[in-house]
Write a structure and sequence with these properties.
The protein has two domains: 285 residues, Vaccinia Virus protein VP39 (Rossmann fold); 100 residues, no CATH class. The chain is built from 16 helices and eleven strands. It has 433 residues and is α/β, with parallel strands linked by helices. The chain binds S-adenosylmethionine. S-adenosylmethionine binds next to helix 8.
C-alpha cells in the first residue's frame, strides 16, 4: 500500500464552488482535482474514459473538459439526469436561460400579487413523516412547477428542473445529516417560509455563468458523452470490448449508504419515481444491494471462485458476531458483505471486458467496519480483480482517515469503530494485461 503524492484527495467537498460541479450537491461524490490528476497521469492523448458508477458525473464532466470521449452508467434516474445535463451544458444558450429566469421571477411576483392558486399537485406517492414543505413553501414550489410546465424549450426546462431539484431540500423541513432526515431531529427549526424563486433563480444564474465558462473552455471541441441510466452490470456490453482507455470510478462503499432513499424527494418531485415499487427495483440492482434487502435471506456466500481464503474467513468471523441479534447481528451483515463482494467480482469481470490492453482502472473505495469487524474492502477488491486476470498496480491511500459512514453515526458506534481500526479511503489501481 502506498501513500499517493500524485493523487489529490478524492472527497467531493471542494467541488461545491467549482463550475459545473457546483450545480448538484452529492454527498458521496469525489473531487474534481482527483479526476484531473488521474487524467493527467493516464491520458496522454484523447481517448475514451468510462465511469460505470457515475453519480452526478464528476469523472464525465472533467474528462469531457479535457477533450476525451466519455461514457457513464448510473442507476439512479436523478443522478443520471444531472449527469446528462452537466455533460451537455454547452448546448444550453446562456442568454436564453437568463431571460427565462427573469420571466420566472416576474411569474412568481405576479402570482403572489394576485394570490394565484397553483395548478400543479404534489407527487401522489411521496410520503414523509412530517410535511416535506410547509404550506407557504409548498405553494411557491407548485407555482414553480406550473412555470416549468409551460416552458417550450426542452433544454431550458431541463435546466429549471435541475435547479429546482438541487435546491429543493434547502427549503424543505428535511436535511442531510448525512442521510435525509427531519430538520427538527437535528435540533433545527422547520422552514415556515422561504424565497423559493430567489433560491432557484440564484442557481440558474450560476448555471448560465458556468455555461459561458464551459463554452469558452471547450472552444468548439465537443467530445462525445453517453450517459446510460441503467445498471452497469446489466448493460456494460453496450460498450465495445477493449475500447476504454481509462476507467475512473467510485462504487458505493460497503456502508449501506442509501443513494436511492436519500434522493426520494428528487425522484418523486421530478416524476422519475411514482411508487415504492420503483425503489425496490433500484435496490436490488444496486452495487452490493443493501443490508435491508438481503439480511433476511438464507445464508448468502461468495458465488465466484477465488483461491484466496481471507475474504471467506473474514465473512465467517462477521457471520458469527452477535448471534443474539438475529439478522441485525453478524448474520444479516455477512449476507450484505457477501453480496457486495459478489458484485466486486461482477465489476472486475466487466472492467476487464471494456478496458483496452494496458488500459487502467482507478477505483476509489473505502474500508468498512461491520459489527466491529474491519473489512479492508480495497484489498479484497484488488484480490478479486487479480483473480479475473487484472494486474494490481498499486493501492494508493490519498486520505488516511475519513469520518463515519451511515452505519457509524452514533457516538457509541463511532467509539467502537475507532477501537476496531481507522476508516480510510483508497484508490485501487488496476491494469488490463
Ligand atoms: C459513490 S457514488 C459515485 C459518485 C461519483 N464519483 C461522483 O463524483 O458523483 C456511487 C454511485 O453508483 C451508483 N450505482 C449503484 N449501483 C449501480 C449500478 N449497478 N450501476 C450503475 N450505477 C450504480 C449509485 O446510484 C451512486 O450514484
Amino acid at each position: 500500500m502506498a501513500n499517493a503524492p500524485g493523487f489529490n484527495d478524492p472527497a467531493f467537498a471542494s467541488n461545491k464552488s467549482l463550475p459545473l460541479h457546483r450545480w448538484v450537491p452529492w454527498i458521496a461524490g469525489f473531487s474534481r482535482d482527483f479526476v484531473q490528476s488521474a487524467l493527467e497521469r493516464h491520458m496522454k492523448q484523447p481517448g475514451l474514459v468510462l465511469d460505470p458508477f457515475a453519480g452526478v458525473g464528476t469523472t464525465l464532466v472533467e474528462a469531457n473538459l479535457a477533450g476525451h470521449d466519455v461514457a457513464g452508467f448510473e442507476i439512479n434516474p436523478y443522478a443520471a439526469f444531472a449527469c446528462r445535463i452537466k455533460t451537455q451544458a454547452y448546448r444550453i444558450e446562456p442568454s436564453a436561460l437568463e431571460k427565462a429566469t427573469l420571466e420566472f421571477l416576474s411569474f412568481h411576483e405576479d402570482a403572489s400579487r394576485n394570490d394565484r392558486k397553483p395548478k400543479a399537485q404534489p407527487p401522489e406517492g411521496f410520503r414523509t413523516r412530517t410535511a416535506f414543505y410547509s404550506p407557504k413553501v409548498l405553494r411557491k414550489v407548485l407555482l414553480t412547477l406550473d412555470f416549468i410546465e409551460q416552458l417550450n424549450d426542452k433544454s431550458a426546462s431541463d435546466a429549471f428542473r435541475l435547479a429546482f431539484a438541487s435546491t429543493m431540500v434547502t427549503y424543505s423541513n428535511y436535511s442531510y445529516e448525512p442521510s435525509l432526515s427531519r430538520k427538527v431531529s437535528a435540533g433545527r427549526p422547520e422552514v415556515e417560509d422561504h424565497a423559493v424563486d430567489q433560491a432557484i433563480a440564484g442557481k440558474l444564474y450560476e448555471m448560465a455563468s458556468d455555461i459561458d465558462w464551459v463554452r469558452a473552455r471547450m472552444k468548439g471541441c465537443k467530445p462525445s458523452s453517453i450517459v446510460v441510466n441503467e445498471s452497469f452490470f446489466d448493460s456494460f456490453r453496450q460498450i465495445k470490448s477493449g475500447s476504454v482507455d481509462l476507467l475512473i470510478t467510485s462504487p458505493p462503499y460497503l456502508n449501506n449508504y442509501h443513494y436511492n432513499r436519500n434522493t426520494r424527494p428528487h425522484l418523486y418531485w421530478l416524476g422519475l419515481a411514482s411508487s415504492p415499487k420503483d425503489f425496490k427495483e433500484l435496490e436490488y440492482r444496486n452495487f452490493g444491494k443493501f443490508w435491508q434487502t438481503v439480511r433476511e435471506n438464507e445464508r448468502i456466500d461468495l458465488d465466484f471462485p477465488i483461491a484466496d481464503e481471507e475474504i471467506r474467513r473474514t465473512l465467517g468471523v462477521l457471520r458469527r458476531k452477535n448471534p443474539e441479534n438475529g439478522v441485525y447481528g453478524g448474520r444479516g451483515w455477512a449476507n450484505y458483505a457477501a453480496s457486495y463482494f459478489n458484485d466486486c467480482y461482477r465489476f472486475s469481470k466487466a472492467a476487464r471486458f471494456v478496458l483496452r490492453r494496458r488500459g487502467t482502472a482507478l477505483v476509489v473505495i473505502g474500508n468498512s467496519i461491520l459489527q466491529g469487524v474491519m473489512i479492508p474492502t480495497d484489498r479484497y477488491l484488488a484480490r478479486i480483480a487479480e483473480s479475473v486476470g487484472l494486474e494490481v498496480v498499486d493501492i494508493h491511500i490519498p486520505r488516511a482517515s475519513r469520518v463515519g459512514s451511515s452505519i457509524i453515526h452514533s457516538e457509541v458506534r463511532a467509539e467502537k469503530a475507532k477501537k476496531g481500526g481507522q476508516l480510510y479511503e483508497a484508490v485501487v489501481e488496476l491494469r488490463k494485461r
